[in-house]
Amino acid sequence: MKARVTIMLKDGVLDPQGEAIRHALGGLGFAGVSGVRQGKVIELDLTSTEAEAAKAEVARMCEGLLANTVIEKYAVEII
Amino acid sequence: MKARVTIMLKDGVLDPQGEAIRHALGGLGFAGVSGVRQGKVIELDLTSTEAEAAKAEVARMCEGLLANTVIEKYAVEII
After folding, report:
1. C-alpha triplet A49, B41, A55: angle, nearest 5°
2. Which residue of B has its CA nearest to A44?
3. Residues 8-67 in B contacting A (C-alpha not used; CB under 8 Å)
4. N or C: which end of chain B has fewer CB within 10 A?
5. Residue whose C-alpha is closest to residue B74's, from B58, B50, B51
6. CATH class of A2-78
7. One biological process GO term for this chain (chains A, B) (predicted)?
């Protein structure tokens, strides 16, 4: 079973990497971009076969290692 | 309109960051993880209102700046 974790900075948190991308896109002539946020995606291959249990386990991984929950939010989906 | 770009290393490409995460998860006692791949996610706020045109524009951004298409694959979705 595969799980995908998407980790983004929380909404109020400054994202200099996203801002740099927005600036670079403007420089390349892509005018229609008003905001950019960059985050991480982590795909996990799990040996578990039970979706709900796997999702809870991955949420524990996020809390313990993958995300910094002070400034980041995460979403877990089973794919 | 918002677009989400997910950029992952292509399947054959070594992913040391993902491997480090797998190792760290094992060390924390999460045994059921057989593989990890890490990638980037970029959320774009677009002024465009036409979904198909926006998707094509974002694909051009990926080819020109966001992804290194030699080693990375990308997926664009309008959200």
Report:
1. 20
2. B36
3. 8, 18, 21, 24-25, 28, 30, 32-48, 54, 57, 60-61, 64-66
4. C
5. B58
6. alpha beta
7. 'de novo' IMP biosynthetic process
Task: Give the DSSP H or E segment for B39.
Answer: strand B33-46
Residue-wise pLDDT tens digits, B49-59: 999 999 999 99
Contacts of B33 in chain A (CB under 8 A): 44-47, 61
Q: Phi and psi (nearest 5°) for A71?
A: -120, -10
Q: Report pLDDT digits (tens) over A35-54.
A: 999 999 999 999 999 999 99
For A44, the closest of B36, B42, B66 (CB atoms) is: B36
Closest CA to B38 of A67, A5, A42, A27: A42
Starting at the earlier edge strand, list the strands of the sheet with A2-9. Answer: A72-78, A2-9, A33-46, B33-46, B2-9, B72-78
Q: Are A59 and A73 in contact (CB under 8 A)?
A: no
ipTM here: 0.91
Size of interface A-B (CB pairs under 8 A): 96
